[in-house]
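Please check our next protein.
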Amino acid sequence: MEGGDVFRVSSARISSSNIWRNSGRDIFSRSSVEEDDEEALKWAAIEKLPTNLRLERGILTEETTGQPREIDIKNLDLVEKRNLLERLVKIAEEDNEKFLLKLKNRIDRVGLQLPTIEVRFEHLNVDAEAYVGGRALPTILNFLVNILEGSLNYLHLVPSRKIPLPVLHDVSGIIKPGRMTLLLGPPSSGKTTLLLALAGKLGSGLKVSGRVTYNGHEMNEFVPQRSSAYISQNDLHIGEMTVRETLAFSARCQGVGASYEMLAELSRREKEANIKPDPDLDIYMKAASLEGQEASVVTEYVIKILGLEVCADTIVGDEMFRGISGGQKKRVTTGEMMVGPARALFMDEISTGLDSSTTFQIVNSIRQSIHILQGTSVISLLQPAPETYDLFDDIILLSDGQVVYQGPRENVLEFFEYMGFKCPERKGVADFLQEVTSMKDQEQYWTKRDQPYSFITSREFAEAFQSFHIGKQLGDELSTPFDRSKSHPHALTTKKFGVSKKELLKACISREYLLMKRNSFVYIFKMTQLIFMASITMTLFLRTEMPKKTFVDGTIFMGALFFTLVMITFNGFSELSLSILKLPVFYKHRDLLFFPAWAYSLPTWVLKIPVTIVEVATWVIMTYYVIGFDSDPARFFKQMVLLICIHQMSSALFRFIGSLGRNIIVANTFGSFGLLTIFVLGGFILARDDIRGWWIWCYWFSPMMYGQNGMAVNEFLGDSWNKVLPNSTDTIGVSVLKSRGIFPEAYWYWIAVGVSIGYMFLFNICFTLALEYLNPFGNPQAVLSEESMAARKAMKTGHPIELSARSSSERKSEVRMSSRVGSINGSNQNKKRGMVLPFVPLSITFDNIRYAVDMPQEMKAQGVAQDRLELLKGVSGAFRPGVLTALMGISGAGKTTLMDVLAGRKTGGYIEGAITISGYPKKQETFARIAGYCEQTDIHSPHVTVYESLQYSAWLRLPPEVDSATREMFVEEVMELVELVPLKEALVGLPGVNGLSTEQRKRLTIAVELVANPSIIFMDEPTSGLDARAAAIVMRTVRNTVDTGRTVVCTIHQPSIDIFDAFDELFLLKRGGEEIYVGPLGRHSSHLIKYFEGIDGVSKIKDGYNPATWMLEVTSTGQEAALGVNFAEVYKNSELYKRNKELINESSKPIPGSSDIHFRSQYSQSFWTQCMACLWKQNWSYWRNPPYTAVRFLFTTVIALMFGTIFWDMGSKRGKQQDLFNAMGSMYAAILFIGVQNATSVQPVVSIERTVFYRERAAGMYSALPYAFGQVMIEIPYIFVQTIVYGIIVYAMIGFEWTAVKFCWFLFFMYFTFLYFTFYGMMTVAVTPNHNFAAIISSAFYAIWNLFSGFIVPRTRIPIWWRWYYYICPIAWTLYGLVASQFGDITDKLDTGETVAEFVHNFYGFEYDFIKYVAVIIVGFTVLFGFIFAYSIKAFNFQKR
């Protein structure tokens, strides 16, 4: 038993067991089979083994022969695990429960207790802090003021201007084990905050009071992250891993909890009672409780019950790679926590993007495991369908941060009836609960007709609940504390990590290795780039052109060494963006305590060492002898070793900067500062003797200095440099070293190696510390208006407030009007309201539309013979004014495809068939003017306010005849219609990051189309991702729009009953793009139900069931096969089809006396107005984007001051050649760094705006040129300010000559240099699919530009075959202009006897008289890059539809 005890101790993890929670594995036992003697003997043999071995052996029946054999469970392979699961859980929906019950019976049979957790929260208050009103908009001014205030505030000099914002207010409750709890509440009612508080994960920036206990234990007595699992509503995953790998990694890190101890005890008791368990179940339980497996059975099981088998081996995907769908990502996020051993689950909106049947199935399997294995769970759902809602036992209803109801599901309606509100017949209870607390919707549910209605606030509900019988009961339970002695010893975990440190490290190493294989493209690309640069370097410094006779020859070799050093150092730069891209996922895993920071940072470092060696070796082998460095082989290897150390050091440095910056813009900026310092003070650009006393410490700290010294000493002390110069005692080598201030001693090589290795360790340790202690940047929420702030305050005090700026009578009428979409006074008012601008009602008919794409290669590979894949197979229909049509079908039926074809949004593929608009053939140019298209993804410029977005859209899309006053009125009206008035001043922000919530964004998308006053509107899934209330608001908007007499078509995924009732007609497609029902729905969908129930074999609809769900269920592919009908054929033979055909024929003839739509020009506004509008929007976008504009401005100022102090007064020194090199060095470094910084930072900005541009261009708002004009013009003033700031500081401090001409030339060249760099950055984005690609492509050119800039090698020494590149290198011309204008006309003598002007001419080949032409050339580059940007934006479309 020795071994067994040791093993048990090593794995004694007091964590909760989750084998049993983990779901419903349904087991088909083989009890009916008579016990095989053989099997019994084998079992007896296993029984005799000591415990630790007994838990690793099982009896597996062969699939083929049916023979039992003894197996070692550790060695189960994937196929065997899958077969085992197939036997246990064949079909997840049916067998899961049986499986779980078997599992439970086995445990109950020997009287084992399962650990359970009861969570209580008492008097929980959470407050956040926020700026209010105009101060919350991120303009450049506010940005600078906030920085100032923040720092003064930190020193306690000024009080904070932030205002506390209540999130949760005095909530209490109990969450019991073995019961499913549903958390409901309108958006921003505090659901996520409550779940985070229960899981012990609240951010440090919040003020929290009250307590949360598990089994009576406070949060600090155990590790909440291991005992409970919080499933976030954001899906963060590494895109390059497959679903199975993601879940397996998670399972490997979380371990198996206490299940090993439980199993040992179970096995011991079974042996005593002489019970033989079911062999399959036994293997499953043993396999699930052995830790350290790379792929556990639990992973397979979770994949099965979450319905992820289809995509188990597909990569998850991100914006770079196409991966699994949004709904599948959501399930992976859920699965990631379900594979772990936690006993309490807190799930935040796990159903977003899932259709209701999938949600039902997932919630149902969670429910089975919670009920049978006594887990604890709180799940918040957005729009639970009635059948999903019925799966829950308890409901918690939150509103405005207060608990309005907490208790059994059965009593919730009783409570609201006691308050005087009744849920109508055809309404989901969940939808009713979310609406009944809201101001707009409450009145329609009031039942006490004899009493006058007044709005009941959340606070009043919460107080009334205290006196309701359920509330009293809850209060009583909370007052008696939990009996801690009843808590199972394994229920709460006190160990920080799930498995041993060694296991965690192994898991991280294997994942990192996998990612490197998946990302091999990056490494291959870097390698190619390196070989390419090496070839250029070789041919540029070719040894036939490189004698070793004079001092100048030495400086050229010095340049070659410097360039090698720069290439190797900056080759690590890609580490920066790669490590930042993986940070969000790392923070998620770190906070869930998957692994410690060092387990993550160690593999990233160690596994990259071989890559470094290969890269450096390639470079050195290619260039060393070709350039003609010293031919001693020892020196060759010494150079290689030093470069390897330097490369490792720089990779570590960039990783550290990335983890410190945590955001690509910040990291790039601060990274550049650091780099600039070590770059300029590395001893090449500025000789050591010329460095000022106040910067010399930086010289000694600069890792590049040691690299430069080591490389130079290694080269110049070699035999080939032994020639002694005339009239001096030193050899050429030594004098070159001395002129640069390098120590001519051989031991400096070893110092360099030592220091590089030291720095490598230092940076890697700092990287780990940064990962361990820094948190990701918070996401700023939407701007709070003063009003919403007051409303929040009111909820705390309990006094309802009148919204300012509106009289109460106006408010009352508004509430009444919007209470029911179809109420009579509502529709009358609507009719009057939408009529400020007249429009022509138009119908759209289409006949026999076919759409096909080229057959994908994957399908051809599987042997599909056709060349085209048909996505729409001859669909026909007519959409008429004032009729709201729903376009439905299961996913993959071609809903969006049909809409894209009708709206003319497809960019590829083959379209056949006729589309007519009110009888005239559709022309895309005119059609874009009269149609609106609301895309499923809400794409808007992030830095403008809601009102500005609408103003902009109206300005560009309404006809020029409309004057501005009418336009303003119309915009106001649309905002009323879409209920966006309170958000007028809110910033739009980036989806999922900051700004508007999903549902507000949706309404904005609709409003942006409505202000164009279109006659036909297409909407792609306007309600996906919204909760019931938001969906109702959006649908109300849509309905209001239809009632104005417009033609509206919506694709819709999973409508609830009341949303479905809002539609007039239905267009139903089946998978493969064929129509199966086109026609009116009827009241309560009666026509639709009658049609489908009339088909033989279709089951009748249940009472109160959602017709939309029923219709999708009865027409599914499975049903078709079961009934043996083809619904498309049935439709083609029906009366309905004939009627529709007649209607189509009738509608496709023009009405007599009407005329075709005609516009004078393609766009509604003139070219000039388009330009102005684009510039107007860009102006606001830039002003409110401080991370880009203000940071760039600060960056330039700091760099200017730095350069000024480093090169203090060097412009006036003209005694030695080195003085001129120093002055030129300052210009070279500035151009390179500020220029590249400009180009890199503009890329993400343009990339985001470009997606908006695609949508706006498709909508016919403007052509490509005005957009390019706006984007290019807005940079001009910003860069002008940048140049002035930089120019004045640097010019004064470096002390160039103060003549007007020279100063103006200096500013001129600097200005256009910054400008062409910025345009170059924009241009690279315009020719590549996204900004990550753009960054890679553009960086390749910076290196070449750097090499040919004329600083490392002067033009006079460039071999004739590379001279042409010098002439097309923009940096070279900038340097020409700067140096020639400063020094080209100076006649002072140097120490060598020639004048400055002669030296500039002889060494560099610069002529003073040529400056005018240089100026023209530089302006030419700027114009060229700007033009290429504009042309590429017009010509390339990277949006595939």
Summary: Residues 1170-1435 form one domain. The CA atoms of residues 121 and 212 lie 4 Å apart. The chain has a mean pLDDT of 85.
